[in-house]
Amino acid sequence: MARESDEKALELPAGIAPAVILVEPQLAENIGMTARAMANFGLSELRLVNPKNGWPKKGVREAASGATHVLDGATVFPTVAEALADLNFVLATTARERGQMKRVFSPEEGMAEVCARPGQRIGVMFGRERVGLSNDEVSLADAIVTFPVSPDFPSLNLAQAVLLVGYEWRRASGRALLPFAGEMQTPPASREALIALFGKLEAALDAAGFYPPEKRDGIARNMRDMLHRMAMTEQDVRTFQGALKAVSRAMKTGGAG
Amino acid sequence: MARESDEKALELPAGIAPAVILVEPQLAENIGMTARAMANFGLSELRLVNPKNGWPKKGVREAASGATHVLDGATVFPTVAEALADLNFVLATTARERGQMKRVFSPEEGMAEVCARPGQRIGVMFGRERVGLSNDEVSLADAIVTFPVSPDFPSLNLAQAVLLVGYEWRRASGRALLPFAGEMQTPPASREALIALFGKLEAALDAAGFYPPEKRDGIARNMRDMLHRMAMTEQDVRTFQGALKAVSRAMKTGGAG
What we know:
Chains A, B: Homodimer. The structure is a homodimer of 257-residue chains. The first copy, chain A, has 257 residues and is of the alpha/beta class.
C-alpha cells in the first residue's frame, strides 16, 4: 500500500474524476453527506437533477460538514438528459435487475472501467432515496454499477453509495494512499542486542527464583519465542533493558533505587 | 466477480464477522446509521462503550432505517477494556499517526488480516465523532486501520468509516456477491444471423437512396463496424430485423403497413 510520500512520483493524470449525478434527491442530509463523501475521496463535481422540494435546501450545508465547496460548485439540471449531455460514459447505480442487456459492474469493476478511459468525461448516476432510478433513466447509461450488499439488508443510504463509489475510484486511480505508515519502517534489533537481552532477562528471573528447576530451560526458551514475536526494534530492546536494569537493581537493594 | 447463485458452493465459515466497537459515540444519527451500514454488509455485533449523553437515544431507531435488529442486539460497556475483554485480535481506526509502533493497515489489508484468523474473535474500534480514540485506547489494539482519504478533506463520518470496514470485510471474506449479473450471460448472435442482418440493412439503405455512390462500400463497412460493437444477441438481431422489415415495407407502400 503506497504512502502519501510517494504521491508526487505517481504523476497522476488530471481531470478524470467522475461527476456524481443525483436524480431528484430529496433529503438535505443526504445531499450534504454526499458532498462530504465526495470530498473525502477527492471527487468534486456534483450534479443535481430536479431536486425534490427545491434547492438550495435548509440544512444541507451543515450536513456537508465543511465540504461546502462541493455544494457551492454543484450544478442543477431540470432533466437527466441535460445533466448527462456532455458526458462520454455513464454508469447507473441500481439495486435491482432492470431487464436491460447491460454490463453490470461491482463498484471496483466500474471504477476500473472509468480509469481505463483517461480523458473521457464520466458520470455516475444515483437515484431517488426511495425508488432509485427509473428504467428509462437507466437506459441512458452505458452500464450498471451495483453494490455487493447483504441480501438480508440491501438498502444502502444514498450518501453511503456515493462514498463507496468515491472510495473505489480513489483506489482504482492509484490515489488511495494511506496518510501514514506503521512501524515496519524501522528494522528489527540486531541478533547481538536480542541475545544480550535474553541473557539479562534470564539472569533477572534466575535471581528472582522464578523458574521451577526442572523446567528452567524450557520456560526460558518459550520466553525467547515470545520476545521474537515482539519483533523488537533497537529502541524497544533498550527500553526493555532499562526496565530490567531498574528491576534487577531494586531486587538487590529491596526497593526503587 | 461471483454472483449470488454461487453462494452455497462457497461453504463460508461461520462466526468470523468482526464486532464493531464505538467508543463514546455521541449522535443518535451516527449510531443508527452505523447499524444500517453494518446490516448492509452482514455485520451484526455492535458494542457501545459509554455512549455520550445516555443510551438508548432518541432518534437512533429511525436513523437505523430498518436495521433495528443490530441496535437491539447491541451491548453497552462502561469501559473500553471491558468491551474488548473477550476478543483475540483488535484493530483501532485512526486518522492520525499516534507515535506507536503498530502495524498500519488500509481497510482492505485490515480485513484480509481478519480473514486470515478464522475462528478468532475480532473487534474493530471506532472513536468519538470529534476527537477519535485516545492514545491509551489505541494502545489496547493490535494494529491500526486508517482510510485512504484525500488529504484535503480527511474527516470521515463515523458511520461511513464503519461502512467502509464492513464493505472491505465482505469482500475479503468472499461474500461480496453482486445481486444480479449482466447481459454477458447470453452469447452473441451467430455470424450467419449477423451477415443476414447486414444484407437486409444495406438493402434497405440502398432502397432509401442513402449512400452517396462513390462512398457506398466505405460507409457500409463503417456501419458493419458499429453493428459489431453492439455485440448483438440472437434476440437483438431479431429485434433489429423486425424494425428493418417494418421500415422496408413502409418504404414500398408509402406508410405504416
